Amino acid sequence: MKLRAVTSLAAAHYLDVMGGFHVRPGDGLPEETKTLLMFGPREPGFWAHVTRAPEFRDGKAHALDRWSTRVVGSLAHDIGADPYFPFGGPPHRPFVAWALRTGRAWSSDVGLLVHDQAGLMISFRGALGLSEYLDLPGRGTRPCDTCAEKPCRTACPVAALTERGYDIPVCKTYLVSQEGQGCMGNGCAVRRACPRSEGSGRMAAQSAFHMRNFLG
Which residues contact 15 (CB under 8 A, 6 or more apart)? Predict the structure, then answer.
């Protein structure tokens, strides 16, 4: 199996390989697993594609997670891999630690994960563990290191998410207020402020979906 072949199979479902690594002890994976690849939305077009899926039409909860389970599970079956997901459980998989291992994602200046292409809009829909060593996607550079203005640090209207940490109660209180509807409809102001996020292709409708789920 070649990385190019896996990337092509994933692209048919508007998923992209967002990074990967060769497994070592302590990664929380079976001993026979040699390579882990992490998948996220392929933009542009992910949200338009996924919302046409049956999971978004049956009226049941957790549509995106169920879509991810079906699609990533199908990819795993096709290439003989083990699927892993950042939701459900136990066991809860260490997706943040895995992302940091890829050389494509880092802790940002506000503590959220930042990706070399998706910026603060990075998200993962699943991962595949393969029992062979694949060539890995190229490593990137941390966007925050070359970001002069660092708008993420001051973007939150109520200072709930800054370099000092994340005050979730203050964030949620703001989101249910009239003033917070901009974040509810367009996505977190801090995530949107990241210059790298601007080119991620994330649609406002997808961000709004995640914000509604965040509030429960």
Answer: 39, 40, 41, 42, 46, 71, 72, 75, 125
The pTM for the full model equals 0.95
168 Rama sector, left if φ>0, alpha if ψ -120 to 50, beta otherwise:
alpha
95 CB-near residues (< 8 Å, 6+ apart): 38, 84, 86, 124, 127
pLDDT < 50 regions, the chain: none
3-state secondary structure (DSSP) of residue 169: helix
Percentage helix, strand, coil for the chain under 3-state DSSP, each rounded to 5: 40, 15, 45
Which of 68, 200, 207 has its CA nearest to residue 124?
68
Question: Which tokens go with 95?
Answer: 């997706």
E strands, the chain, where? 15-22, 35-41, 82-84, 105-107, 113-115, 126-130, 161-162, 165-166
pLDDT in tens, 124-166: 999 999 999 999 998 999 999 999 999 999 999 999 998 889 9
In the block, tokens 């077009």 appear at 45
Rounded Cα distance, 186 and 52, in Å: 21
Peptide bond into 30 cis (omega under 30): no
Cβ count near 198 (within 10 Å): 12
Specify whether the CB–CB gap between 55 and 63 falls below 8 A: yes
